[in-house]
Write a sequence for this structure.
C-alpha cells in the first residue's frame, strides 16, 4: 500500500493493489476548484479587454475568492463559515496568487504563451498548495 502525500501526514490519494482512491474531500475540492476556475476565467476574459493581464488576473482572483470561501466552507469541508475563517481564508490564497501570478508572468513573458491561456496553466501548479492551506484553515478542529 502506498499513500501519496504532498506534505507529511496528509493522505489525499491512496494507491493499493493497483487501485487509486481519492478522498471524498479531495474530490469535493476539485469540483469547487472547477466551478471557481470557470467563474474566475469568465471574469478574467471580461477584465482583460480593458486592463493589463496581471491586473485582470488579480481582480478576477480576488472576486472569485469570496465565492470560493463559501463553496469550500459549505461543500468541500462541510463546516460553517465564521468571520475568523473568512479573515484567515485569504492566507490560503496568498500562496495561490503568488504561484499563479508568477507562473502566468513567466508563461506569457518568457515562453510567449497566449495571455488568455496562461492563467489556466498557471492555476494547475497552485492547486495542491491551495488545497492543503484551505483544508488547514476551514476544517473543524477535532480533539482526540
Amino acid at each position: 500500500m502506498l499513500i501519496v502525500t504532498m506534505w507529511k501526514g496528509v493522505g489525499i490519494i491512496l494507491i493499493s493493489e493497483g487501485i487509486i482512491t481519492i478522498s471524498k474531500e479531495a474530490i469535493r475540492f476539485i469540483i469547487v476548484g472547477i466551478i471557481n476556475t470557470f467563474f474566475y476565467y469568465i471574469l478574467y476574459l471580461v477584465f482583460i479587454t480593458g486592463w493589463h493581464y496581471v491586473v485582470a488576473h488579480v481582480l478576477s482572483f480576488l472576486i472569485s475568492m469570496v465565492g470560493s470561501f463559501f463553496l469550500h466552507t459549505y461543500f468541500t469541508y462541510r463546516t460553517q463559515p465564521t468571520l475568523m475563517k473568512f479573515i484567515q481564508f485569504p492566507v490560503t490564497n496568498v500562496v495561490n496568487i503568488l504561484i499563479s501570478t508568477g507562473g502566468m508572468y513567466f508563461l506569457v513573458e518568457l515562453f510567449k504563451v497566449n495571455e488568455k491561456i496562461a492563467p489556466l496553466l498557471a492555476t494547475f501548479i497552485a492547486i495542491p498548495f491551495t488545497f492543503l492551506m484551505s483544508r488547514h484553515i476551514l476544517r473543524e478542529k477535532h480533539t482526540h
